[in-house]
Amino acid sequence: MKPIYESIIPYSNISFKVESYNAESCCMSAGWHIHPEYEIVYVKNGSGILRIGDKTHYYKNGVLVFLAGNIPHSDFGNKQYENSQEVVIQFSKEFVDEKLNLFPELGCIKKLIQTSKHVLIFHDSVKSYLSNSFEHFSDLSNQGKLINLLSILNYLSTTNDFHKLIHFGLPKEFREKETFRLKNIFEYINNNYNHKIEIKDIAIKVGLTPNSFSRFFKKMTNRTFIDFLNEFRIRKAVDSLNERDMTISEVMFLSGFSSPSYFSKQFIKYQGTTPSNYVKKAKLL
Q1: Residue ranges of the HTH araC/xylS-type domain (predicted)?
Q2: Whether 19 contacts 42, CB under 8 Å
Q3: DSSP letter at 222?
Q4: What phi-psi label fits residue 207: left (phi over 0), alpha (psi between -120 and 50 degrees) or beta?
Q5: pTM of this prediction?
Q6: Are 180 and 140 in contact (CB under 8 A)?
Q7: End-to-end Cα distance, the chain
Q8: Residue from 88, 76, 75 nearest 31 by CA
Q9: I need a surface site. Which of 102, 152, 194, 285 has the fewest CB within 10 A?
Q10: SS3 at position 73
Q11: Angle at the Cα of 204 (from 199 to 205), degrees rounded to 5?
Q12: How confident is the model at residue 176, as a pLDDT?
């Protein structure tokens, strides 16, 4: 089965993405999917199955796995216990090339990242040693999260206590042309989300007719383009509400919406509350 292309939407004020989930707020299932970002997943406890590429791995007491981008996989976590916890860290090739590569001292970390193309499953002793670092990510500032990530990568780069799930290359699940086209679409959205975006305009940018573009986007992401665009804009609106001293109307226009009623409807859809209630709750924190 061909995997769905998952778009990783980063927050505007941090150069990588980290999310923590528990038994009640579990990670929304993406099914069999693929994305270009590197991914580190820590599962605290419980048993489950890792399905990565054409390999299957069973775990009994949680798992710590590191895989490179563009490797198809299914969801990793489980809800077996009340204190279940899953931490997912994702970072792009640009994060490695434009940031980590600036520091020659990080040679071991860069070697580890290269090795992740084999999908690294670390021994329980490594998972146990790093458990506190993973489980307290959500308590840290953005600066603290970056330092914590580098500390985790540093430790992982110094241990041989892992096994490689994949020893040879995987067959390419996507044609390079499709992947390149989808990347251009996401870049266009990121650069123009605060302006009016019409399907016919972005279709021309990637060499498709509007109808072909809509079919292509749905095939690759299992979502309509409008649904994806609205969620992306709401994520940017949330970032602005959290970081800037702006009115809701200013945030609405800045994130690409022009209708207050439509903005509120989409905000409720993706955040579960109205913009005004979100602001009120944020001020109480």
Answers
A1: 183-281
A2: no
A3: S
A4: left
A5: 0.70
A6: no
A7: 45
A8: 75
A9: 285
A10: strand
A11: 100
A12: 62
CB 183 within 8 A of CB 36: yes
Inter-residue contact 93 to 69 (CB < 8 Å): yes
The SS3 assignment for 102 reads helix
Side-chain half-sphere of 246: how many Cα atoms within 13 Å? 17
Note whether 2 and 223 are within 8 A (CB): no
- Nearest-angstrom CA–CA distance, 53 and 100: 27
Report pLDDT digits (tens) over 79-129. 888 888 999 999 988 889 888 988 999 999 999 999 999 999 999 999 999
Q: pLDDT tens across 28-61, in order?
A: 556 778 888 999 999 999 998 898 887 889 999 9
Average pLDDT (147-171) is: 89
Cα 158–Cα 161–Cα 164 angle in degrees, nearest 5: 105
For residues 173, 3, 153, 9, the Cα torsion angle rounded to the nearest 10 degrees is 120
- Which of helix, strand or coil describes residue 79? coil
Q: Which helix (H) or strand (E) holds 273?
A: none
Residue 173 backbone class (left: φ over 0; alpha: ψ -120 to 50; beta: rest):
alpha
The contacts of residue 166 (CB under 8 Å, 6+ apart) are 52, 53, 55, 71, 117, 118, 119
Contact yes or no for 33/6 (Cβ under 8 A): yes
At residue 51, what are phi and psi to the nearest 5 degrees?
-115, 105
- Which residue segments constitute the domains of the chain, with CATH numbers given? 4-164 (2.60.120), 176-284 (1.10.10.60)
Per DSSP (E only), the strands in 96-219 are: 120-122, 162-164
As a whole number of angstroms, the distance between CA 111 and CA 157 comes to 8
